[in-house]
Structure formats: C-alpha cells, structure tokens
Amino acid sequence: MSSPSSPEIHDVGEGRLLLTGAPLRVLQWLDAELESLARTHGAAMMRVPTLIPRDTLDRAGYFEAFGDAATPVGPGDPPPYLLTPAICYHAYPTLAGRRLEANAIFGCAGRCFRRETAQARSLSRLWEFTMREVIFVGTHAWVEDERRRWMTLAADFASTLGLAGRMEPASDPFFAGGRGQQMIQQLKELKHELRMRVGTEDEIEAVASFNLHETFFGRRFGITTADGGPAWSGCVAFGLERWLLAVVAQGQLDHVEALAGAR
Description:
By secondary structure, the chain is α+β, with helices and mostly antiparallel strands. It has one domain (9-262): BirA Bifunctional Protein, domain 2, CATH 3.30.930.10. The protein is 33% helix and 27% strand. The protein has 8 helices and 12 strands. The strands form 3 sheets. It has a 7-stranded mixed β-sheet with strand order 3-7-8-12-11-10-9. A 3-stranded antiparallel β-sheet has the order 4-6-5. A two-stranded antiparallel sheet has the order 1-2. A hairpin with a 6-residue loop joins strand 10 and strand 11 (204-214). Helix 1 (21-40) crosses helix 7 and helix 1 crosses helix 8. It starts with 8 loop residues before the first strand and ends with a helix.
C-alpha cells in the first residue's frame, strides 16, 4: 500500500486505518461540520447499526449491482446479516409501504465495509471506512434540486478547506441493471463525483458522490408520493477518510486543524 504522509495515520493492514493526533481531530471535525450542514438544510438525523439484514440488501438490488463486495456476518449459508456497505440502505426500509405527504430528508453516518481488489494498492480503497450521507426521498423535481444543491455545498466546503478537486459524471452505476441499463444511467448522469488528489499525483479518487436513483428504490420499497406515484430518491455520500487523505496530501492539515480550533 502507498504510505500516508502523516505519521499519525497508521496503516494496520487489510484495508484499515488507525488514526491519532491531528488526523483524528480533523476527521472528527469534518464529520461534525458535514452533520451541521445537513441539519441546516433540513435533514432529520438517523443513527444506523453496523449490521444490515441480507433481505434489505436483496430488496434494494445490492447483490445485482455489486455482487459479493459486502462482508457477510453470522452463522448460516448464506449468513442473515452483512456489514453495511453503504449507509443509505438503512433509510429506505423506514419508509417502506408508505405514502409520503411531504418530502423526506435524512442525515446519518456510520462505518461501511467493502471488499475491493484495489485495496492492496492504496489507502484510499479501504475495507472499513466512515461514510456520512444525506438521503432525500420525494418528488422528482425536489430530489433533483436537492442533488444539485448538495453538489454546490460540497464544492464550497472543499474550497473552505483549501482543497482542489473537480466535479464530473461517474462511469460506474449506483444501482442494478444490465450493460444497456448501465449505459443509460451514465448518459443520464445519474451519478456525479467530486474527485481530488488523495495521495501521490496519480491517486485521484472520489471524496463524495451525488446520486439520483429515479424511482428505483421507491418501487423496490413501495414508497409513494402524495399523488400516489412511486417516489424518487437520491443521496449524497462523503467518504471521511478520503477527505482526510486529501487534506494531508494537499498540504492542508495545519489549515484545517486551525479551522477546527476556531469553531
């Protein structure tokens, strides 16, 4: 694995980090700032468990889209639970079968776990990491507006940290579909990413993603809007360890720690 440029970011192997000192303080501050931003923009806070039922991921089409990237836990074949691969999967079951009289927006954070082949090469591809998400479920126009709003908010937040990055459409789909469906998702630009340097010059990774699911999860979980049609949904995901690695790689650790101390 590539080495972090701070002695207080410890690579403990198998795609895991141990943080101390300034990097830990900065990561905790980043999380608190993003939570505050979500609250300011109307998100109801949600605390989610680390384990998620296999039935929930199956209903959400996770295995169709991502195969066996999630980590199974517990007895049985297959085990009934997995370590959470993305926080937003906890939100949709809370609305299952409901008719929404108003748009719903949630904010939550937790530990995520994904097995990826690239983990052997870079600390920016972790097995265990922290994700903060904002999830919106409601009408078509409102969901699109929220996704657009959060793209601006994230870019502005990066600027205050002194981080250079670029917003661009993503090449990988967020939810299930064959090759033709994946191409449609890309053409519709259903997923954008804020990408920036997180290590050496050639280590460019997404630190945040901005996703439109259209009615995919609304249909899967039977969520409807006030007019009786399937709800649209979208989410914004921030990978906190990648934000920290970007802060260190781009020489902004002292600057961001000063920001944290001033607030």
